[in-house]
Amino acid sequence: MMSREIHRGRLRSHEACLNCRRKKTRCPAEKPACSSCVRLNQPCLYTSVPRGSRGGQSSDRLAYLEEKVNLILNGSRPAQPARQEQGHDAINDLSETSYSTNTRLSSGEPNCSLNDPFLFGLGFEDSGLQASSPAIARGIDLYFENCHRQPIWCFDRDELRDQSCLSEELVCSILALTSRFSREQDQFQHYGDSARSLIMLRMANGTVELETIESLCLLSYSSFIDGNIRLGRFHLGLAFQLCRSAKLDLESTYVFDCSTTERKKRLFWSLQSLEQSYGQQDGFLSVPSEILRSFYVSAGGEQVSEKDLESKPPPLPRDDIGCARPSDISIWSLAAHFGWVWSRVRTYVSECARNRLKAPWRNDSMYAMILSDLTEIENKMSQCHRYDSVKFYERKGDELRVNRDYWVPWLKLQFTYHSILTVLNHPFLYIVASQYNHNLAIPNAFWRRSSELVLLHGTWIVRMIDMVSDKKMRLVDPFFGHAAAIAATVHLYYCCAADPRLKYKSKTDFAKCRRFLKRFVSFSPLCQALDHTLNKMTRIASGSESVDYDWEPSKIHLSIPLMWDVLQVNCIPEHHETSSGGLLHPSLTPAVAREESEGPASTLEIIVAMSPEVTVNTADGGQTAHMPPHLTHIRSAPASPGSMALGDKLVAPADSLMTNTPWLWTDPSQFVDMDNIGYQDSDSALGNIEGFSTWWDFGNL
């Protein structure tokens, strides 16, 4: 039977130029340039492979492939008329590539594939965009300056020290993630496409390595920063599937230590961190976050059977930065613990958006279970990591930047903790729920307590923003921008508070959240979309383009669709609104119905009742003051989200926090001219801490 190679050799002309071979067309074979290439104004190149060599021994065939790739690497690759043809050529050459790649792996050589010529030539579409060694070194530096441990932690610096031993896809993924922070911002799409091509080639050839899954983790994070949630979730799901195939998701795999054990642990939990913040919350294929409850909240010291060992997730990676004792959970792992609770909060918001809210004051409600889990995890936090112990506000900026590996996860933990309690008690959730369900009567006690908590922790987010800005800390994770956007919606709600002090403070804090969010706009389209959404919410709430210094409303209009967009991170960058996000053919792009955010049918009119003037004696902490809260119920027909009439008015309770909490008014100097608010002026809110010890000692972690 005739071999496949000989059969291919007879079908293809060995006198054809590279251009015609690539397009699989008949070549006139004129020299020095064929008429087909002359007509298309393309460089015409011929190989020096002698006739019959492709049907000869494998060594001749390999020499032919190497020579062909050398032409590509030397900048002699013919111009590509269409990107579709490039992808078609890569697929057609998979059999040839498989031979080259498998030969290297079967020979027992180490994974030093940076100089693997065939992979490099296939991954890059233009030899002029090949990354040089200095560019790769700069990309690695940018990764550790901006992305390391916030939140992903796949490798440490010493593991990337030898560039020659880095896989091709890992190099491209690092550059795709970090080019947004360099002058090569226009090339991140090119690096991402190259990384994806190489990863798919690895999968097709059955040569997936640990660095391949790490590359998917980096690409997923990059897509989430870009607001390309669909593509990011695809990369994340693919990485999880590869982890399952390699059994990296089971504790039993880590019984025996090897040189890559810790790196595998870090990869798995990095993927979990991304899943907690950006993973899918609905759909039958979504993995419920509750399945990991036994890992996050179970008590230690329990006897584990061999059967239980097989079904448990891998242990946390070793990390003693900032720990006082060997038994202390590291700060990065603690951030992952609180991130799991945050994923539960995201599920809770998703349930609220679909009108599935169970009375939150019931002990079997999801609200109560989340608070229980949060308290359980908070109890695992060692004293060495707590706010009062680390004294972040007393640290110098240079010290924080030198020890970023500790302080960035610490800030992530703090922002996550306060965001959890802010979202759980957000008044919007319960105002909308009471409109949909007439049987859900919100008790005054719950209104009062949740109002206190949401404003307390919403204000704490602003305090953390003040401190981060004062220390000039560089944060990149879009979660920080999302937390600021959530806090901004709370302060926008309280801009029509009865108490003039609370009204003024809310306007100030709203402006600070907006300014902090804008810091992420330059490199994160996701945060840019969040900022754009807040702009529209502000315009609808105030009836003007901005909240100025003189704005003192007695009522505001909240856009229901825009509020859900902010709480659920459903904001889509403009360049992704009409596309499939670089993943799906238009025939598979899901049709998502978008509500008109400025129509009267999707707007709530919120009126905060005015309360009489109350004089509070602060000597006893304001305990003698009391204003019973009340909620005015207005008849409203049940409707789906986005179908409420503008005339449905809700009167929020004049809760005790507006008049009975002197700790709220921490620093009068923060009430400055709105036009002159700047992070450089935040020292007054930070320096004289002892004058406001009641505030700083209450509600922190």
Automatic annotation (TrEMBL):
InterPro entries hit by this protein: TF_fung, XnlR_reg_dom, Zn2-C6_fun-type_DNA-bd_sf, Zn2Cys6_DnaBD
Gene3D superfamilies named among the record's database cross-references: Zn(2)-C6 fungal-type DNA-binding domain (4.10.240.10)
Broad class of the protein's primary localization: nucleus
Zn(2)-C6 fungal-type domain mapped to chain residues: 16-46
GO CC terms: nucleus
GO biological process: DNA-templated transcription
Molecular function, one GO term: DNA-binding transcription factor activity, RNA polymerase II-specific
Compartments where found: Nucleus
Alphabetical UniProt keywords: DNA-binding, Metal-binding, Nucleus, Transcription, Transcription regulation
PANTHER family per the UniProt record, alphabetical: ZN(II)2CYS6 TRANSCRIPTION FACTOR (EUROFUNG), ZN(II)2CYS6 TRANSCRIPTION FACTOR (EUROFUNG)-RELATED
The protein's name in its UniProt record: Transcriptional regulator family: Fungal Specific TF
